[in-house]
Amino acid sequence: MLQARMEQLHDRVPPTYATLEATEDGVLLRAYDDSLDHMARFLVSLGCPFTIMQPVALIDEMRSLAEKLALQADQSRSVTITNE
User: Fold this and answer.
1) Which of 12, 67, 78, 83 has the lowest tally of Cβ within 10 angstroms?
2) Residue 82 exposure: Cα atoms within 13 Å on the Cβ side
3) In this structure, how many other beta carbons lie within 10 angstroms of the beta carbon of residue 41?
4) What is the spatial distance between Cα 44 and Cα 31, in angstroms, rounded to a whole number?
5) Distances in Å between the alpha carbon of 10 and those of 25, 30, 38, 59?
6) pTM of the predicted model, to two decimals?
7) More confident residue, 52 or 78
8) Which tens digit of pLDDT belongs to each residue from 15-38?
9) Which of 67, 62, 22, 64 is nearest to 42 (CA)?
10) At what angle do helices 57-77 and 36-45 cross, to 10 degrees?
11) DSSP string of 20-83?
12) Inter-residue contact 33 to 58 (CB < 8 Å)
């Protein structure tokens, strides 16, 4: 299963952006990004569970992104689409 996860991530993670390392606990991704917003969106786009080890500020950025997405979903739900 770890090998399959590594292959999946290798297809999605550019080597110029991050490195991937197989560990006993899963795959360790080390990214090189100065934008926490971009990093949060990138992690979500991978479509797999993850744990943020550092920087701690990325956890707050992830919460902020989740709140924005929830708001967008709520606003979308309130829109009535009619066929004309």
Assistant:
1) 83
2) 1
3) 13
4) 14
5) 18, 13, 19, 24
6) 0.80
7) 52
8) 999 999 999 988 999 998 999 999
9) 62
10) 60
11) EEEETTEEEEEE--S-HHHHHHHHHHT-S-----S-THHHHHHHHHHHHHHHHHHHHHTPPP--
12) no
Largest CA distance in the chain: 57
Distance CA 20, CA 32 (A): 12
Amino acid in the structure at residue 6: M
- Is residue 27 within 8 A of residue 52, CB to CB? The reply is no
* Chain center to CA of 40: 5
Structure tokens at 67: 């709140």
Residue 40 has pLDDT above 60, yes or no: yes
Tokens of 42: 């990138």
> For residues 58 and 51, what is the distance between their CA atoms, to the nearest angstrom?
11
Please tell me the number of Cα atoms within 13 Å of 45 on its side-chain side.
9
Both tokens assigned to 3: 């090998």
Tokens of 61: 């950025």
